[in-house]
Amino acid sequence: MNRLKSVRIVLTALLLSFVICSTNVSAATYKVVKNDTLYKISKLFKTSVTTIKKSNKLKTNTISPGQKLKVSAKIYTVKKGDTLNKIAKANSVTLASLRKANSKWSDSLSVGQKLILPGVKPAASTSAQTASAKTFAAASAVESASKKAAVSYTKAEKDLLARLITAEATGQPYKAMVAIGGVVINRVQSKEWPDTITDVIYDVPAGYYQFTPVKNGYINKPASSTAIKAAGEALLGTDPSKGAMYYFDDSSTNNWLWSKTKTAQYGNMVFVK
């Protein structure tokens, strides 16, 4: 839970972003290999787990080797004289990511071969640049639903946030529950963390789970009615954590957490930034 971002995305920008993203359709297919996770793939293609799940209609984060996923990435056609290194440099991608995206571990290439350029978005076609009435209607609905929200979110993300609050703060004061939601919102608004509620909660940088309930599976237990109410308040911008980026139980012996600036405490839950 890092620094609080000072500038929030305005609704107009959200609407424009929605339209642009909808025109930038997936242009490549990535084949899942052993030890892949949606998080790793999202970092490779510079997108979010949520976007990949939506593009592929995935209901869970479970994927299997050999599974094919649609990803938004430019396709490059190999030309005479090309090498993997030249292609990587010309398109500002690393050689390692180029190999990974294409499962290309040898240096051999053939003219006409197609390669995925990870992180390089395909150009929108002229027709795609003109959004349809249906797209604008959907975008307007998102704008309308999010007018009073601190961040954009879906019904599923509100439930996910409520389940996190249930797992972390059942038995704690109500303010602690809202504050936990506030911490997640603060992360979404921070440039240092993923930009959706789902990606923040499931974030596992360097293999380190940010939220214990994700690791132990408690995140999958149904949310309590109180937690759902607390999640709703947090999503509307209520933040009893006072800008906190971390929270922990006061029985913790983690010196690094205790060294942070304390912003609030409710019951056993300590909030710091």
TrEMBL record:
InterPro entries: Cell_wall_hydrolase_SleB, LysM, LysM_dom_sf, SleB_dom1
Pfam families according to UniProt: Hydrolase_2 (PF07486), LysM (PF01476)
Segment forming the signal sequence: 1-27
SMART domains attached to this UniProt entry: LysM (SM00257)
Listed GO MF terms: hydrolase activity; lytic endotransglycosylase activity
Keyword Hydrolase included in the entry's annotation: yes
Keywords: Hydrolase, Signal
CDD domains: LysM (cd00118)
Domain LysM: 28-71, 74-117
Keyword Hydrolase recorded: yes
Protein name in the entry: Cell wall hydrolase CwlJ, involved in spore germination
